[in-house]
Amino acid sequence: MSGRSMPRSTALVRALARSSAAAACLVGLLVLVGWALDVMVLKSMGAALPAMRPSAALGLMFAGGALGMRLRCLASAKHRQLGTVLAWATAVLGAASLLDSFITGGTGGLDALLLRLFGEDGFASPGIKPSPLTSLCLLLLGPALALLDKGAPQRLWWSDALVALALMAALMGLNGFLLGPLVTPAAVPFFQERSMGLHTTCMLILLAVGTLCARPDLGLMARLTQDTLGGFVARRLVPVTLLGPPVLGLTLVVLHLSGALGHDAKFPLFATVVAAGGATLVLMAARALDLLDTERRRATTALAASEVRFRTFLDTAPDPMVVLDATGRVRFANAEAERVFGYRREALLDRSVELLVPEGLHGPSNPSATPRPTGGGRMVSGRRQDGTSVPLEVRLSPLEGEDDATTIAILRDVTERRDLEKLREEYVGLISHDLRNPLHTINLRAHLLQRALHERKLEREGHMAQAIIHNVEWMNTMIEELLEGSRLESGSVTLRRSPRDLGRFLEEVLERDVAPDARERFRLHLGTSIPPVPMDAARLERVVTNLLTNAIKYSPKGTPVDVRLSAVHDQAVVSVSNLGAGLAAQDAARLFDKYYRTEDGRSADGKGLGLGLYISRLIVEAHGGHIWVESEPDQGATFFFSVPLAVASETEASETEASETETVRQRAG
Description:
Strand content: 5-15%
Oligomer: single chain
């Protein structure tokens, strides 16, 4: 079981504390009103019962007010100060009353003054003689309430100790009040000359319990509210032990006064009932432990089932997985780990993971590093049982909630991926050498043929040669797009970054890459000056040119195209807007996918491969930025791309990528 407090128990305890504070203030006020108006039922709850002294009523109001100030959820400094003043006023009142009871026998002091104000004769009033227990309870509760607001554990311990003493004193008064007739046959029923009043002792008990309940998650009350074995048993036994004797005494007194119980039988019966009560407590404790044992068995069964599911999940995973302890020893290996490494799992248990990965999961330079989640994985070389090596991608995931730093290690066999990368390299080499070289030869011969035909003034044949040259250039463009896409996909491209003025860069691209007859359609809007942007100018020029070319191609002739530059957050944002037909939602969502082309794109340019925007996305993402489009049918389209104003590390980029992307899109849009 955890040490967390039970929400329901905590709420009930806090409600009890608030109720006790309110009840103490209300009862104290009613008693004072009873003395002022001479209403006997308010003073003593009956003519034959001890009355609550005015000083005790005033002390209840002070203590209840102090507790109420402590329980305010948003207590200000003034409220806390007022609570402290009321707490110490309670202590001073209790000390003065206690001193008065020993010096004058309770016939003078504050009570005499209050009685004169109420028009009462303090010396002749029945039941007005004080009980020292009342003053003692107030004297103990005052400092306890003053220390309640202090956060130091030692002060809270003192507060709980004082409250416990006050609670014992109040219970002593209650038990003496109830059990007096059993001890002294001649005692007046329910009345002793210096006894605490029934409502006095009940309110002091309630106030002491409320003071303990003010901090349900700390001190003595935490023993009751915590979801632990001790708290479970205490919640069932403490109320019985505190309330059992008073209830027993009340029952015996009622039987004695009704004549159903003789005086000689009271003590044997009391002893018998106490023995039965002790046995009852033992049985209640046994029942509580049985309930806990049932819950434990249920939790154990659920844990075992969960462990079976967990092991089944690990065992059926498509990648080799091992569970490691804090020392790096294998505690579990799945079936795929057996297949890849050739060991039986029994041979791997309690062996170091370096048996499978000689260099260690964290590398030879830091073998004892604390396990941390590795999202991208780390490439290492594993070793099979037969001594052969296997390329692995390691991903580590610490198990949350485990005290012994248990870690799950995924050792993915990347042999097939290595083979695919090798095929990719061969594919790139094939295109580079076996296709580009013949095309270069064809292009050179076609230019020579065109020149010879021009010299012989064979115009029709010259146009045919020009068509050959045009198609060779188109094939070279496709080959270049395939190569660039392959390089960017493999992550083998190293950007040649250099700080550039992005506004000046856009002006140069418009001047250099846009045909003169179309240049007048572009309107460049440069916002506030932004610092130089680190970028690979050649590759970013390809992105801008692609967007500018598409804007001209897919918008009506003569309509303007707006190019804007702005800074959003810590990103530079470039947008290209046209007044074309716009894009459907399904097209906008897939526009930057590989080989994707819209219906309008296929009809406008049948020779395209659908790689232009895809390569643009890869280039922008390689810079650490993002590219997107905002468009609706018949409303034109605006293409955006962003690049960071400064180059961030991989860790910083992964932590802030999602939030910054959303911010950039909202502000740019």
